[in-house]
Amino acid sequence: METGDVGPGLCCPSFNQDSTSLAVGTKTGYQLFSVTSVDKLDCIHESTETPDVYIVERLFSSSLVVVVSQSMPRRMNVYHFKKGTEICNYSYSNNILAVRLNRQSLVVCLEESIYIHNIKDMKLLKTLLNTPSNPSGLCALSISHSNSFLAYPGSDTIGEIIVYDANNLSTMTMIPAHDSPLAAITFSASGTKLASASERGTVIRVFSIPEGLRLFEFRRGMKRYVNISSLSFSPDAQFLCASSNTETVHIFKLEQHSPSGDEQAPSWSTYVGKMFTAASSYLPAQVSGMMSQDRAFATVRLQMAGQKNVCALAIIQKLPRLLVASSDGQLFIYNIDPQEGGECTLVQKHRVSGSDKDWEETEKAELMEPPQACQSYAATVAIPTSGPVTATLTGYSEDGGAKKGEVIPEHEFAAGPVCLDDETEFPPINWCRDGSGRGKGRRP
């Protein structure tokens, strides 16, 4: 969400890297919620010290949170919210449009430059200057320990994607993803897949990383162009969800179709499929491509349209869920049937921001709608719940300080999960980029 989008009653939601936490920036400050239960949404932390927050990002489930306010849109503040202290702050030459975090890096995106910091000590490692104009701050940072990749637009006129190695600080590849400028990009949890959508919003493509080969192509729709605002993989990268300014969220299934239907019993769909495959070889590439594209495996019809929202796929209480956080301060949780797909079932909604009047009006409107039938989810336990294993960053306890561990020297990457004492990590830093020395004592 851009700096001018925080209006009365609106909020700026964002999920953390593994979708276990929701951060919400508002006119009065920001809040952090735990998203580990369907029926209960726990508020972990609330701050009213900094108003007009339009960026708030939490590092996994640690105590580190990054905040940017409209009152000072060129300054990034990094807080240890459990201890109530500021770790450091940095000021930049222009407005901050996006911040991305993983266990190694903190990335700050401006309209024409990108800054990469070492998240362990916040030192600036690399500045990418004169990047193509990127007024929406579009960028993605993978969360894998071994594949720490950064993706950002390589052009402001066509949909080129630059993939940058944030560990080795070098450009890896350029992917010609779309004919139109990019609107959304995201990595899978392992960093081996990258999904993208253009400003037209009709086609979503998935590429292999680092090779940049096209793996999948999904068609959201052909009737109208839409603004896709959010893309997100499931933890196992078997599903991909996309939300836009319309009332529909699409979920696509990433499965390789059998190259031949010979092993299957003959059916009408088999014959039709073969017919289209044969016909596509005689058609122009553009038409042939549209015929080969897969449509949505599952869909959700939201109770609102025209509002910016973010979506995420997560396993909550051992079942696959779709999470949709809207800019009017609501969190919707849907069940997904991973075998059959179809229309997803709304199982819970939570209020995270907004006035009582706005909420009452929403409640009245929803009472007028017929209730949705519940679906059976006995088959969902077949989905593997263990996603890719990623190493924990040295110096950051994933649980906010409940576990203790030994300190590893600075600049040394951890070979496996390591947790440190929350009382000694995130020490206040006495310097900052603008030289003001404001790095101590402020409460988040």
UniProtKB/TrEMBL annotation:
GO terms for biological process: protein localization to phagophore assembly site; response to stress. This is WD repeat domain phosphoinositide-interacting protein 1-like isoform X1. It is found in: Preautophagosomal structure membrane. One of its GO terms (molecular function) is phosphatidylinositol-3-phosphate binding. Belongs to the WD repeat PROPPIN family. The gene is LOC113042656. InterPro entries: PROPPIN, WD40/YVTN_repeat-like_dom_sf, WD40_repeat_dom_sf, WD40_rpt. GO terms for cellular component: phagophore assembly site membrane. Keywords: Autophagy, Lipid-binding, Membrane, Repeat, WD repeat. It is a peripheral membrane protein.
